[in-house]
Design brief:
It contains no helices and ten strands. By secondary structure, the protein is mainly beta. It has a single domain (31-142), classed as Galactose-binding domain-like (Jelly Rolls). A five-stranded antiparallel sheet has the order 1-4-9-6-7, with no helix packed on it. It has a five-stranded antiparallel sheet with strand order 2-3-10-5-8, with no helix packed on it. Strand 6 (89-94) and strand 7 (99-102) form a beta hairpin. The radius of gyration is 16 Å and the shape is globular.
Length: 145
C-alpha cells in the first residue's frame, strides 16, 4: 500500500519580531533610533490594550523603533496596522536604505510589505517635524520563495 502526502495549505511561519502585538507594558523590546521617543499608548489601540508610539524628535529626518532581527540579503514580509498624526508619515525599514514611506492615515490602516533586507535591523518609524506614528499587531517573517 502506498502513502501519498499532499500539501494542502501554504505553510505559516512564526514572527521573528519581539512584542509585535505591542502588548508589553514597556518599550524594552525596542531600541530608540535617530532621536525617537518611544511609548506605549492605551487610549485607542487597534487591538488589545496597547500600541507602540514612535514620536519623531529628529527634525526633518525620520525617527524609528528598531529591532536587530533581520538577515541581510534575505526577503522578509512585514505586516500590521499603523496610523499617523495629521501631517506625519509612517515608515517601515528593512535595513539601512530599504524603506517604505506609508501615507498619512489618521485611522488604523493595514499594510503588508515584502522586501529584501540590506542590514540586520527592522524599524518602524515616524517622519515629519515633531510628528508621531503608532503601530499595532505587527509581524515579520522570512519569505520562502
Amino acid at each position: 500500500m502506498r502513502s501519498w502526502f499532499y500539501r494542502t495549505a501554504t505553510p505559516t511561519y512564526a514572527t521573528i519580531l519581539a512584542d509585535g502585538n505591542m502588548e508589553a507594558a514597556t518599550t524594552a523590546s525596542w531600541i530608540a533610533n535617530s532621536g525617537a521617543t518611544l511609548s506605549k499608548q492605551t487610549t485607542t489601540p487597534y487591538g488589545g490594550a496597547r500600541c507602540l508610539r514612535v514620536q519623531n524628535t529628529g527634525g526633518d529626518n525620520a525617527s524609528q523603533a528598531r529591532q536587530d532581527i533581520l538577515t541581510a540579503r534575505r526577503r522578509f514580509v512585514a505586516e500590521g496596522w499603523y496610523r499617523t498624526e495629521a501631517g506625519g508619515n509612517a515608515q517601515v525599514f528593512f535595513g539601512a536604505s530599504t524603506s517604505v514611506v506609508l501615507a498619512t492615515a489618521t485611522s488604523w490602516t493595514f499594510v503588508r510589505i515584502e522586501r529584501m533586507a540590506d542590514a540586520v535591523y527592522f524599524m518602524l518609524g515616524a517622519s515629519g517635524v515633531d510628528k508621531y506614528a503608532e503601530f499595532d499587531n505587527w509581524n515579520v517573517r522570512v519569505t520562502y520563495v
